Every structure is written in C-alpha cells, then in structure tokens.
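Lab intake sheet, docking and co-folding queue.

SAMPLE TYPE: protein with bound small molecule
LIGAND NAME: nicotinamide-adenine-dinucleotide
LIGAND FORMAT: SMILES
REQUESTED OUTPUT: full 3D complex as structure tokens
PRIORITY: normal
SUBMITTED BY: R.K., bench team

The fields below were copied directly from the construct record.
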Amino acid sequence: MPDRFTDQTVLVTGGAQGLGLAMVHRFAAEGARVHLADVNADAVQEAAGKVAADAPIPPVPHVVDVTDPVAVTGWIDGVAESDGRVDVLVNNAGIIRDNRVEKISVEDWHAVIDVSLTGSFLCIQAAMPHMKSRSYGRIISFSSMSWRGNFGQANYVAAKAGIVGLTRTIALEGARHGITANAIAPGLIQTPMLASMNGPARDLLIGKVPLKHPGEPEDIAAAAAFLGSPEARYITGVVLDVDGGIGIGSSIR
Ligand SMILES: NC(=O)c1ccc[n+]([C@@H]2O[C@H](COP(=O)([O-])OP(=O)(O)OC[C@H]3O[C@@H](n4cnc5c(N)ncnc54)[C@H](O)[C@@H]3O)[C@@H](O)[C@H]2O)c1
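RESULT FIELD (auto-filled):
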C-alpha cells in the first residue's frame, strides 16, 4: 500500500458505510488523519471503530447532516482548527428516491438534490478557505454513471449531473489556489444497493458491462486515493468513470 497521505487531513462525507467506508479505509491505510461524517450516528461510530483496528491513525467520527449549513461549517472549521489543515474533501454522501418523473414527490425531489448536490456545495464552501490558506486542496465529489440520464431517476440524475457542473466550476475557481476538483462516476459496484436489485434485472445490467462484472468498493477507493493524492496535481475538472466500461455506451457484442 502506498503512503501518500502522511500528515494530511482527509474529510469523507457519508463515511459510515458503502463506498464512503471503503474510502475511509483506504485513506487511513495510506497514513491520513481521516474525519468521516455521517448522518447515521451509530453507524459512523461503529465504522470509525472498525477502521481504527488496523489504521496507523484512528479515524475520527462526526455526526453531520450535510444538508445543514451550520453543522457542515461547524464540522469543517472544527477539523481545520484541531488539525491545522484540510487537504482532501470527499463529497460522497448521497441517497436515492427513484420513481418515474410524474410520481416523484416534491419532497423526494428536494431530498435527493439536497444531500448530493447541496451537501457537496456546502462542504466545498466550508473547506475552500482552509485549502486556500495553504494553497493546496483536493476536492472529489460523487457523480454516477447515471448522470447522463437514466429511466426512473430524474431527481438523482439532476443531482449527479449538477455535480459535474459544480466540479468543473470549482476546478476553475480553485486552480489559482492550488486546489483541484474532480468527480468520480461509479458504475455498477458491489454494494447493498446493487444486491437489493432483483436478480434478472441485475444480471442483465451486469451483462452490459464490457468487463463483465461489477466493481468492488475498493476500486472506487483506489480511484479516489489517486485523485486525492499530490501526484494527481495536473488533473482537474474531470469526471472519472469507474465503471468497467459501461459508460462507453452500446456495444453490438
Ligand atoms: N453504490 C453504487 O453502485 C453507486 C453507483 C453510482 C454512484 N454512487 C454514489 O456513490 C456515493 C456512495 O454510494 P453508496 O452506495 O456507498 O451509498 P450508501 O447508501 O451505502 O451510503 C451513503 C452514506 O451516506 C449517508 N448519508 C445519507 N444522507 C446523509 C446526509 N444528509 N448527511 C450525511 N450523510 C448522509 C448514509 O447514512 C450512508 O452512510 C453516493 O453519492 C452514490 O450516489 C454509488
């Protein structure tokens, strides 16, 4: 395992489970002081405890709802004060409330946009001054293969396409301050979400992946660790598909 985050402070939202937890593991294994935030108080404590067992520096759990501007600012300013730095921000928290567009309630529209898109905006807004003060920062936000459009996911797609525009704009605004901003668009990843799909539909989708199998959370964590590392210094404003090739589009084979 490389050691690219020694002395660095890394923030991960939605870090209590799934892809977020895999990234907490990865950044911590590479020497970072990781602060994981999640709205699920029990799960975030438990997750931090699990990772602490084999991490050089135990990760620090925080109970934060990323849709709450006061909570987000309190979290990120508090970390900057305790650690004296914020090097990497990973905007991973996200939810789904799938339905066809005419059946999406206004509440479900706002809930999905609020967690994924507004939550990312609030965390970026709170983290940037601390990154600017040290002329260094890496911002990674979670889009999805769905950002190009997906049946039954108008709210999620709007949020995930919004992440692409937000990322490209932050890349421009951050560049003069040594801050890069990139997005990751995961494809089908082996998570509880994928497991919960009905078998035939899941198999059909997996069959469309050129690499012919779903990804693992560790594949996403490896991509995030690269984009979050100092060596990714000349990469900004990109959407990195980590999807086994499914984002390429249709294939006749
Ligand atoms: N799993 C996949 O295959 C996949 C594919 C494409 C994109 N993504 C994206 O990757 C990210 C992680 O996905 P996942 O499958 O690990 O999700 P998950 O549901 O397993 O975990 C999401 C975490 O976010 C937390 N969370 C929800 N609302 C929050 C809030 N308001 N404030 C703070 N934390 C909150 C949850 O408590 C949970 O711990 C999401 O943005 C998702 O849209 C996932």
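REVIEWER NOTE: The mean pLDDT is 96.
SIGN-OFF: pending second check by T.M.
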